[in-house]
Design goal:
Blueprint (H helix, E strand, L loop, with lengths): L1 H18 L6 H12 L5 H20 L1 H28 L3 H7 L14 H24 L9 H8 L18 E4 L18 H7 L3 E11 L5 E3 L4 H10 L4 H13 L7 E6 L9 E2 H14 L5 E7 L3 H10 L18 H7 L3 E5 L9 E3 H4 L1 E3 L8 H4 L4 H4 L11 E6 L9 H7 L2 H15 L5 E4 L7 H9 L8
Parallel strand pairs: 1-2, 1-11, 2-6, 6-7, 7-8, 9-10, 10-11
Antiparallel strand pairs: 2-3, 2-4, 4-5
Helix pairs in contact: 1-4, 1-6, 3-4, 7-13, 8-11, 18-19
Length: 475
């Protein structure tokens, strides 16, 4: 839609330039270039210019692809405008342009008459161009759902970044995953990841382990965990595996920082206590929706440690436009291939830890679909030392017949996590050795390899090795 609007604007501008004296676009561009390259004398302007240059430089460094795309877009828009302007001037040129470009001749006794039909032809042609552009946009489905995922995926020849994965069923593909994926960004007392979920997906994470809670957003912007009974408190402290240190830290925050008063209740992503960090569920689902729309050959698996009723979760997915992407897990255990998931555009698997239902695609993870390793390890040696590998791969939740296999690979040091531990247990040698040992002992390909601080170590390299692929798009 943005391209359509830009194209229509270029048509209108070019049409106007062909019947009235055009504005020299190059003049402002030269002025802008002088401002960027010549340092002003005034101190205030020099500081503003310096800040703008620093900001622009950081933007290029942090997202060079977007910067190149912006430059290409501006250049393409300029070329489009100049091309349309030249075409429309063939039909009609303003007198000013004719005087500047044609040889000087003796002034006529009377001004040359300009045929009115030619002036009418300019807006008529512009309207025709705009109507054609909009018609193509509408007829191609641009105002409805995004273009067919399968068409784009087949054109690219890859599934989750690799052609070799397209014909593998989901339970035979290893996906890089993040534990407490929402635990990152501003407002988190003890982050466990390097970037929020949108950044994780952009970096290549395809498995998300999340916790959903009800929280009350207070007038001061803080979020308080909704604890309405002693049963709720017991669920948080016992079933969620909260350490005494984390529990005491959360309680101190509630008392000292004024988590009191009436608040607006909503679903939040929190690790046990929203006082220690909270991200609105709806905003995360929007990020996931946007990623699926713009990456039609990618598959995502989510495991929700849920403290919110299934109906509320399903409604939130519907409100975010994600229901259309949700895959109903097969009843016979025969998972579709990535290509089949992409062709059907059912590229999102959503599983619940505690309660499921309200939609056929929202099913329990550990009832029949998923099995896992233990997830509580006190030091790096418990995951990296060869004698400890077998114990680290022992059966935990889920039946041995479950097709999906989750390997939990992180160290718990509540209340404060240590990124240095992640660098050790996510390193290529130890992580690959443990994953291969677990695969041999459990007779299952590790569907989800979940870590903390996913950017520390070699998670993606290990996943590629386990999948038997090279770099993105190989094959």
């Amino acid at each position: 839609l943005g391209w359509v609007l830009a194209g229509c604007g270029a048509v209108v501008a070019a049409a106007a330039a062909s019947v009235i004296r055009p504005i020299a676009v190059e003049g402002p561009l030269r002025t802008l270039w002088r401002v960027a390259t010549v340092e002003p004398e005034a101190v205030g302007l020099r500081l503003v210019r310096a800040a703008a240059l620093i900001a622009a430089g950081l933007a290029v460094i942090l997202d060079a692809r977007a910067a190149v795309q912006l430059v290409a877009t501006l250049g393409g828009g300029y070329l489009l405008y100049k091309g349309l302007e030249s075409v429309l001037r063939v039909v009609e040129r303003p007198p000013a342009v004719a005087e500047e470009t044609e040889p000087v001749a003796a002034p006529p006794s009377t001004p040359p008459r300009r045929h009115p039909a030619r002036r009418i032809a300019v807006p008529a042609l512009a309207a025709l161009l705009i109507a054609g552009t909009v018609a193509i946009f509408v007829s191609s489905g641009g105002i409805g759902a995004p273009a067919s995922a399968s068409a784009t995926a087949i054109a690219g020849g890859v599934c989750d970044g690799h052609a070799e994965l397209c014909d593998k069923p989901l339970d035979e593909v290893v996906l890089p995953a993040t534990h407490n994926a929402m635990s990152a960004g501003p407002g988190w007392y003890a982050s466990l990841q390097d970037k929020p979920i949108a950044g994780q997906l952009a970096d290549g994470i395809r498995g998300l382990l999340l916790d959903t809670h009800y929280g009350d957003r207070l007038a001061d912007g803080r979020v308080r965990t909704a604890i309405d009974s002693t049963a709720d408190l017991r669920l948080l402290t016992e079933e969620d595996g909260v350490s005494p240190a984390s529990f005491q830290a959360a309680m101190r925050l509630r008392e000292r920082l004024g988590f009191r008063g009436k608040g607006q209740r909503s679903i939040y992503l929190c690790h046990s206590f929203c006082e220690l960090g909270a991200t609105r569920f709806s905003s995360t689902l929007k990020d996931i929706h946007d990623f699926l729309v713009t990456h039609p050959s990618e598959v995502i698996v989510m495991v929700n440690q849920d403290y919110v009723p299934p109906a509320a979760i399903v409604k939130a997915f519907g409100d975010a436009g994600l229901t259309r992407y949700a895959l109903t897990p097969p009843s016979d255990g025969q998972w579709p291939t990535l290509r089949e998931m992409i062709d059907s555009d059912h590229r999102l698997v959503v599983l619940a830890e505690n309660h499921a239902g309200a939609a056929p695609w929202y099913q329990l993870a550990y009832q029949r679909l998923t099995q896992e390793t233990p997830y509580s390890f006190a030091n790096a040696a418990a995951l990296t030392a060869p004698p400890a590998r077998a114990a680290s791969c022992a059966a935990n939740r889920g039946p041995s017949s479950a097709p999906l296999f989750l390997i939990n690979n992180w160290i718990t040091t509540d209340p404060l996590p240590r990124p240095s531990n992640a660098a050790k247990v996510n390193a290529y040698g130890p992580l690959l050795a443990r994953a291969q040992e677990c695969e041999k002992l459990r007779h299952r390909v590790p569907s989800l390899l979940a870590v903390d601080f996913y950017r520390r170590g070699d998670l993606f390299k290990v996943v590629d090795t386990l999948n038997g692929v090279g770099g993105p798009g190989s094959g």
